Amino acid sequence: MPIRPGLAIFAGAMLVAVAGYGVAGPTATDFVAPLGSMASKAIAEAGGTGVTARFAGPAGSPSRHPVLTGGENLDETSRARVARAVAAVPGVGGVVWSDGTLRAESDAPAYEPLHCQEDVDGLLRTRSVRFEEGSSAMLPASRVLLDEVAAALRPCLGSIISITGHTDASGTEPGNIELSMERARAVREALVSRGIPRDGLRARGVGSSEPVEGLAPGDPANRRIEFAVVRTEPLTPTPIDTPGAR
After folding, report:
1. What is the pTM of this model?
2. With 0-12 CB in 10 A as exposed, 13-18 as middle and 19+ as buried, what is 168?
3. Is 241 inside any structural domain?
């Protein structure tokens, strides 16, 4: 029986997808495995007894953005030192503690807000970037909103644009932190595709640690993305994180 062209094309596409997955999976794992080894060494040298670094996203896929667990008996200075040591490992992205109290990327200099902040805040006053539940996939209406956000940011190109992901308090906090980071990265990539230079974008996730004022931590309205537009000239460097309440 002759094979229909459409069926042959579909079968070929499936073969390519399966082959690509088979190659991409081991490659990502091979990339992350050495990071785990180097991170463990960095943790030990920084005095992080009992601390481990998990290089995996919410779905268990390999990630270069580790979540640190353990070390409950360490003081805040020691926790900051351990996070810095892991963040200094070549190839490692943003580092967070599983309880969300300390983030290694917050040693960036402080900046002064720019006028584009007001424009973006105005867009987000009655709307917000929404995602599918438990996912970093944006809803269609949010893609339209990001078109407007990108247009509002263009007059301030050259500044630093911080993208912060938030979740509500449902689920475990380590999972919330990872999911909020994945969502912030998804928004960053969406802005890049709309012409905003990647080198000016900073993505971070804070889980459920910063609920909207006046809302209960479990309120779904806490699932949001916030933007901060700042100058490129630093004001006052901050050498270590300022920890939040545990």
Report:
1. 0.51
2. buried
3. no
Q: Looking at the structure, tell me whether residues 122 and 226 fall in a common domain.
A: yes
User: Among 110, 103, 58, 109, which residue's Cα sits nearest to residue 82?
Assistant: 103
Identity of the amino acid at 29: T
Please, how many CA atoms are within 13 Å of residue 58, restricted to the half-sphere of its CB?
18
* 161 three-class SS: strand
Pairing of β 96-97 and β 62-69:
parallel
Domain C-terminal end among 42, 76, 107: 107
pLDDT tens string 201-241 = 999 999 999 998 888 998 888 888 999 887 654 433 333 33
CA distances from 183 to 79, 109, 118, 129, 195 (A): 25, 24, 22, 10, 19
Range of the domain at 175: 116-230
In this structure, what DSSP letter does residue 205 have?
Answer: E
